[in-house]
Amino acid sequence: MDVLDLLLHDCATIDEWSEWFWERFTKARSHSSCKDRYLVIHSSIVSDVKLMIDGSTSLESIIELLRSADQDLILEESGVEVHQPYLDELVDIPHRQSAALLASGKDSKVNDLFVRNKLIRSVRTKMHATPAANRRFVGVIRLSLNQREEILEALAEGKDARFASVPLLDLILLLLVRNAIAVTPVSIEGAPWRNPSRGEDKALPLLSVRANRRLKLTLANRSNDGFFSVLVLRRLSKPITAFSVRLGISPNLITFLSLLIGFYSAYLFSQRDYILGALLFQLSLIVDCSDGEVARYTRKFSDFGRWFDASTDRVKEYTAYAALAYSAPESMWPWAIGLMALQTFRHLSDYTFSAISQLREGGLKKRDIFIADDGFSEPQWRGESEFKYWVKKILNFPIGERWLAISVLAAIGGGQWVFPGMFFFGSISLLYAWLTRIRRTLTWKGEGPKNSVVAYQQDLLFTSRALGGRFSWAIPSLLRALEILSILAIAFIADDATVDGYLFLALFAIVYHHYDALYRSLQSQTFPKWLSLFGLKVEGRIVLFALLLVAGINLQFVAYFFLVLFLGVASIQWFFQIRKPSRA
Fold first, then answer.
1. 415, 328 in Cβ contact below 8 A?
2. What span, in angstroms and rounded, lies between the C-alpha atoms of 547 and 53?
């Protein structure tokens, strides 16, 4: 038994905890545990409407059930067995669109699904070819009520007698994909599963309650994160996650604790206690990894939680910049402001490009259900090794690598090492990312689908129309760079001494406002007009700072004003907005 077993074990006693510590410190070999209890493997779905599919189930019955359902509809082939935590990934986690359970297929002869860009794009049946198939269908589908009308229209096409020989769930999945209805692939990776009708007839190994919970914890632990996060941070966060689950600590409380640790880390940086500050900076990130894991383990998801988690990451990082600039023996405020501008430029382009490219490159196209060819040719293996995969991950300079660099450089020499070093690493990452994105953008054809994510972020007085055409994804980042660097240049021209902590605070509040607008836009929410007008928008803020700096007026008041407006009032407004019940 290890610490995770004890943390996840319902019937762990004081004696077992004592024994665990005694074994670690005395190397004792004795062990006692309460009796193992076993999990029933057969699927049991209670949160949605469930229909077990067998030979007597008809397409018409599914259409009628979906038409009258008030919850998402789960379709499961009779005989499917999957360990419950994998099935819960399809059932318990909210999905905005339909989803299907699939396995990673290594044998191209048995693969029957083609997955790319996080969508199922093709389905193989007796009548339909899929040369690029790279996954296997397990036999469970979740039909989303968000797509009910489109799904009902698609399913009506399947009543044709020519499809009588196609297995019902294969037919339904085919009808969805061929009608350009998005279906999310939920993968069980290399896990064992059973479905005799699909050639998987081996019995599944039974899981004890403890093993079941360990598996659920593993699934909650993200495996597609950055290199340092997967190698170190996510391993260290597991015990914290298990402990939090055991005590019932909410994800939002964990996020708040991470924020407090980050603030104390910044305080230590400001007092030139760089080594301890660096260690706590890493601890805040480890704890921050745990909040998402607890949310995935307990299925406690919320729009507020996503916003709170993402926004506090920026607050902690930029507060650390301020503390390192404050404690430097010479003025490092221009460096701190410039690095904040660089990271903001990069972050906004990351999220905006991802949203637009998903529509440009990941959109589905309708294809006649009676055409056997799916329109995809067999892909050529590009030979990307695991080494190359992780190198690309590191070059993207995600939060794990970025905060590791800040911690190491701070421990060596404080802000005098952090700022030049972070500019070097950040510039390389930015150059790599933008060259890759420009190359991909040049392959796009036509105007592309309309997307409000750019228009919602622009924050301009004179236009609300999305600028930039094909390169619109770059507009929010370019506007942020124009605003911050213009104000910084005006401050230099007016007087070097005006580039101080108050200017950093004012610009930090403005940067936070732009992140807030980004997170709202990704959920198709606009920043309130009255708040935008109070914030003066991009042109107004540049003019305001120019007048104040040229006149030599202290920026203390304007810094506090923007902090209260964008961190206080806007956050409270967003909190109450997302708590409002949605109208039918």
1. yes
2. 71
